[in-house]
Amino acid sequence: MTKTIEKSVGRALLVAARLHRARMGERLNALGLFPGQEQALKALQAAPMTMGELAGLLRVKPPTVSKTIGRLSLQGLVSREGGGRDGRLVQVALTEHGQRTAAALDAVWNQVEDELLEKLDSKERKQLRKLLRKVAKGLSQAGAELDDPEEDVDDAA
C-alpha cells in the first residue's frame, strides 16, 4: 500500500526541516553566515580541534569541513595552525571575532527554536525530540549518511 504524499511522515519532516533551514538562513544572514557554518562555530567555541575531529563531531565528510573552514577563515572567524609532531595535523580555532559571533548564535538558535516549537507544549516537545532521535538512529543503522549536498549551502558564497 502506497502512502499519499500528504500522509507521508518523511514529507512532513522534509517540509519542517526546509522551513527551519530557511528561517535559520534568514537569521544567520544577518550575522554574515550561511546555514551549516553556525554548527562549526559552535563546535569550536569550547576548544580548538583538528579538521578530522570537527568532521566527526559534525558528522560530515572532511571535504565539507574543509570548505566551511576555508570560508570561515576568509571571514576572519577561524584560524588554522599546524599542530602535532609532524605539523600535518591542522588545528582550527575561533578568532576573537569568531568567539563573539559564536556567542551571538545562541540568541539566533533560541529565537528560531521558539518559533519552531511555538505550537507544542513541553510534553510534546520532549516527545518530538525523543522520536526524532529514534528516527535518526533508525536511518543511520540503515546506512543513511548525514553529509548531503544541501549541507553545503555556503557554496553560494
Automatic annotation (TrEMBL):
<feature type="compositionally biased region" description="Acidic residues">
    <location>
        <begin position="145"/>
        <end position="157"/>
    </location>
</feature>
<feature type="domain" description="HTH marR-type">
    <location>
        <begin position="6"/>
        <end position="137"/>
    </location>
</feature>
<dbReference type="InterPro" id="IPR036390">
    <property type="entry name" value="WH_DNA-bd_sf"/>
</dbReference>
<dbReference type="Pfam" id="PF12802">
    <property type="entry name" value="MarR_2"/>
</dbReference>
<keyword id="KW-0805">Transcription regulation</keyword>
<dbReference type="InterPro" id="IPR039422">
    <property type="entry name" value="MarR/SlyA-like"/>
</dbReference>
<keyword id="KW-0804">Transcription</keyword>
<protein>
    <submittedName>
        <fullName>MarR family winged helix-turn-helix transcriptional regulator</fullName>
    </submittedName>
</protein>
<feature type="region of interest" description="Disordered">
    <location>
        <begin position="138"/>
        <end position="157"/>
    </location>
</feature>
<keyword id="KW-0238">DNA-binding</keyword>
<dbReference type="InterPro" id="IPR000835">
    <property type="entry name" value="HTH_MarR-typ"/>
</dbReference>
<dbReference type="InterPro" id="IPR036388">
    <property type="entry name" value="WH-like_DNA-bd_sf"/>
</dbReference>
